[in-house]
Amino acid sequence: MKNISSYFIRFGEADLSVLVDESFIRNVINVLTHPNYIDGKPYFDVGFAIAREPFQFNKFAIPICLPLRPVDDVDYLEGDLVTMSGWGTFYDKSNQLKSNSKDLKLINLRVYKY
Q1: Taking a C-beta distance cutoff of 8 angstroms, is the pair 20, 60 a contact?
Q2: By three-state DSSP, how is residue 8 classified?
Q3: 54-98 pLDDT, tens per residue?
Q4: Residue extent(s) of CATH 2.40.10.10 domains in the chain
Q5: DSSP letters along 54-109, please?
Q6: How many CB atoms within 10 Å of residue 50?
Q7: Which CATH superfamily is domain 1-63 in?
Q8: Which residue has the higher pLDDT, 21 or 26?
């Protein structure tokens, strides 16, 4: 992992190429990764970034829903439709180039057994 002092959080953004008035940036003081995450693998690639300063939610920066208690059954959402969002990296097979998205992407996915 890079030096944590180089990380920051941008709230209220859907397009990373533009900074809008309602958005704000906070430095990161800690990162918590999922205990089952293995670097380079696409499973359990979720974590928390702890901001140095508090912030206020607004119409562009809203909280996400998380379980109130640990979920021991990794298949508990099997068959459900969930929405995933992120910027991510795209891979173009035709020219074998990778590029990072500048705008937030959303996709609905069906959950299958782990």
Answers
A1: yes
A2: strand
A3: 888 888 888 887 777 667 777 888 999 988 888 878 788 888 888
A4: 1-63
A5: -----SSS-PPP--SS----TTTTTT-EEEEEE--EEEETTTTEEEE-SB-EEEEE
A6: 12
A7: Trypsin-like serine proteases (2.40.10.10)
A8: 26
Produce one character per residue of 54-63: b if its CB has 16 or more CB atoms within 10 Å, e if not: eeeeeeebee
Q: Which residue has the tokens 């990778």?
A: 98
- Please, are residues 28 and 3 in contact by the beta-carbon 8 Å criterion? no
Residue 17's SS3 state is: coil
Residue 26's pLDDT band (cuts 50, 70, 90): very high
**52-60 LR contacts (CB < 8 Å, sep 24+):** 52/26, 52/27, 52/28, 53/26, 53/27, 55/11, 55/24, 55/26, 58/12, 58/22, 59/22, 60/11, 60/12, 60/13, 60/20, 60/22, 60/23
Please give the model's pTM, rounded to 2 decimal places: 0.62
